[in-house]
């Protein structure tokens, strides 16, 4: 819940100049994400994996050893997604920039690119733990502000109960949870604007001068080292923008930009200014600014709205974590988990039980362990700044590889955002021992899981390659093996050779089906593959009854081998058999 935390700590050093810092930081987030980063969508999908997909696709690269072996053969490029992305079936369809050439020639550069993306993914998953924790406990603490006799233990207990209920209800689906609480968002923004316009009028109408950027420099001149450390607190005024980009697949760019420009951004600025105006008269209330600045007649209604708004913010981040995990699984960088679709209309609305319960346990543990929003906020700031820093670097890379922007134009913008990200990251790392260590430790664990899974898949690929034989040698056995009616499907990690299981089947079974399909599942570097373009199937030369098939999936698609998959494969087989004058086997 952005406004609650930003309002509480944006003036933590007792100076209204900090509000100028927060306002200008919000403007920076507006320019970077809404105006620039949102343009880098991969067929409607956003996040670090979308940027990675764009870069690899246009650079014509793959990461050696990865189980899904992203390649750019003609078979992949005939996908509509490839054609609509501007990658044509030409002799040299890829970017010819020096950066792209370096990525194609250097294995180390390709592995480093993937490692950076996985690190950002790990940090976003950390966001999925810290966002619900800091949002809910920061809202519930309003009880203690109104009734100081309430103990911190009671606040922690209430917060944990709300969080448990939130995660329990995830199984009903994102759309149902979101629809239930969606009106709260509008009420939240309107209420904040009304209350803080009142504060501005009553306490300090001249507070609008804080919008001037020169106060940003004045703040650092006056505060020096303490001004630099204050950056970690003001960062919370823009948290959520990185999740906004990751959740791009749930909404259109137009809807995000309109809602941010005309609803979220103006209301946040009014909120910061109103709370600063209140602090000009009540400087001792800096630690509870949000609740202290609410007029008493509307205190409890606003408390209820704040708690519900915290649930909405938590829901958005949890959904983003589900999407990121699904993309990691589809790219072969995370263990395969059960993914449940909660909507028959919106493909991106999913529920992953294992991840949901792990996030719940970790979130409750964070609240129970830290017991206050300050320490959680320190950790939250570290996670957010790491994600923003990585996004800035990937966006700069994409600007040259994908969009062919002249480096003389992109480099100054990149340097400016890199300076901002570096300053905020260093300020947050200064609080490493006071909560900043948690997202780093969590990201290391998640990254290790991804790396170990990747290594295991790589070793499997090496084994399959070493124990495979040329397909012609194995198929020659088909002439002496008894054939029985029916169709068999053999999954293969290779598209050119015979997998070990197929060799074992042909050499040890007394009979095999008269129709055998060697099926390979591949992920192509696009967000989604059209169902009618899912399969590539062809008969094998000089091997009657044998077919080679490739099933292609984008990183946002769900790999489902159920009845619908079997029916579609059967249909493709019927199309392949028809020109041969054969009948479709049972």
TrEMBL record:
Membrane topology category: Multi-pass membrane protein
InterPro entries registered for this protein in UniProt: K+_transporter, K_trans_C, K_trans_N
Keywords: Ion transport, Membrane, Potassium, Potassium transport, Signal, Transmembrane, Transmembrane helix, Transport
K+ potassium transporter integral membrane domain: residues covered: 29-475
Signal peptide: 1-22
UniProt superkingdom: Eukaryota
Keyword Ion transport: yes
Primary residence: membrane
Residues in K+ potassium transporter C-terminal domain copies: 485-573
Regions that span the bilayer: 111-143, 149-169, 181-205, 225-246, 258-278, 298-325, 346-368, 380-404, 411-430, 436-455
CC per GO annotation: membrane
Subcellular location: Membrane
One Pfam family matching this protein: K_trans
GO molecular function: potassium ion transmembrane transporter activity
Annotated family: Belongs to the HAK/KUP transporter (TC 2.A.72.3) family.
Function field: Potassium transporter.
Full protein name: Potassium transporter
Native source organism of the sequence: Coccomyxa subellipsoidea (strain C-169)
């Amino acid at each position: 819940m952005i406004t609650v935390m930003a309002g509480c700590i944006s003036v933590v050093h007792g100076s209204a100049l900090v509000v100028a810092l927060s306002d200008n930081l919000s403007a920076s987030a507006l320019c970077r994400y809404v105006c620039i980063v949102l343009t880098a969508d991969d067929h409607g999908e956003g996040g670090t994996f979308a940027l990675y997909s764009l870069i690899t696709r246009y650079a014509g690269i793959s990461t050696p050893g990865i189980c899904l072996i992203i390649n750019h053969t003609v078979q992949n490029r005939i996908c509509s997604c490839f054609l609509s992305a501007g990658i044509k079936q030409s002799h040299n369809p890829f970017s010819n920039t020096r950066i792209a050439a370096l990525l194609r020639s250097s294995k180390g550069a390709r592995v480093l690119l993937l490692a950076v993306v996985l690190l950002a993914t790990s940090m976003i998953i950390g966001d999925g733990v810290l966002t619900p924790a800091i949002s809910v406990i920061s809202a519930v603490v309003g009880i203690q502000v109104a009734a100081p006799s309430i103990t911190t233990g009671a606040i922690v207990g209430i917060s944990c109960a709300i969080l448990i209920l939130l995660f329990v209800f995830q199984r009903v689906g994102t759309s149902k949870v979101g629809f239930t609480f969606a009106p709260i968002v509008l009420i939240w923004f309107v209420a904040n604007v009304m209350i803080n316009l009142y504060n501005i009028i009553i306490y300090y109408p001249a507070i609008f001068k804080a919008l001037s950027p020169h106060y940003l420099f004045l703040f650092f001149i006056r505060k020096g080292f303490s001004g630099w450390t204050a950056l970690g607190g003001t960062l919370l005024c823009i948290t959520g923008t990185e999740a906004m980009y990751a959740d791009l697949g749930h909404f259109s760019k137009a809807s995000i930009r309109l809602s941010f420009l005309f609803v979220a951004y103006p209301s946040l600025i009014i909120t910061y200014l109103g709370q600063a105006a209140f602090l000009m008269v009540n400087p001792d209330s800096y630690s509870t600014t949000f609740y202290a600045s609410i007029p008493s007649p509307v205190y409890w209604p606003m408390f209820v709205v704040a708690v519900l708004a915290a649930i909405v913010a938590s829901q958005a981040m949890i959904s983003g974590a589900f999407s990121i995990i699904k993309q990691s699984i589809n790219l072969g960088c995370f263990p395969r988990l059960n993914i449940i679709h909660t909507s028959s209309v919106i493909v991106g609305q999913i529920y992953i039980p294992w991840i949901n319960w792990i996030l719940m346990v970790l979130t409750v543990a964070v609240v129970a362990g830290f017991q206050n929003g300050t320490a959680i906020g320190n950790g939250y700031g570290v996670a957010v700044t790491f994600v923003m820093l990585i996004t800035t670097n990937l966006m700069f890379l994409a600007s040259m590889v994908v969009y062919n922007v002249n480096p003389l134009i992109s480099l100054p913008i990149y340097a400016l955002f890199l300076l901002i990200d570096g300053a905020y990251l260093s300020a947050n790392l200064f609080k490493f021992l006071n909560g900043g260590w948690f997202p780093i430790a969590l990201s290391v664990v998640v990254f290790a899981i991804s790396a170990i899974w990747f290594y295991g898949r790589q070793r499997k690929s090496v084994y399959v390659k070493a124990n495979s034989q040329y397909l012609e040698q194995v198929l020659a056995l088909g002439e002496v093996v008894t054939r029985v009616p029916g169709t068999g499907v053999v999954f293969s990690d290779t598209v050119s050779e015979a997998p070990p299981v197929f060799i074992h089947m042909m050499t040890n079974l007394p009979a095999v089906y008269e129709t055998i399909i060697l099926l390979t599942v591949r992920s192509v570097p696009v967000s989604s593959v059209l169902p009618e373009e899912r399969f590539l199937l062809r008969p094998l030369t000089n091997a009657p009854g044998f077919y080679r098939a490739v099933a292609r999936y984008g990183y946002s698609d769900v790999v489902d081998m159920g009845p619908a998959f079997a029916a579609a494969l059967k249909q493709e087989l019927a199309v392949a058999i028809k020109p041969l004058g054969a009948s479709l086997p049972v």
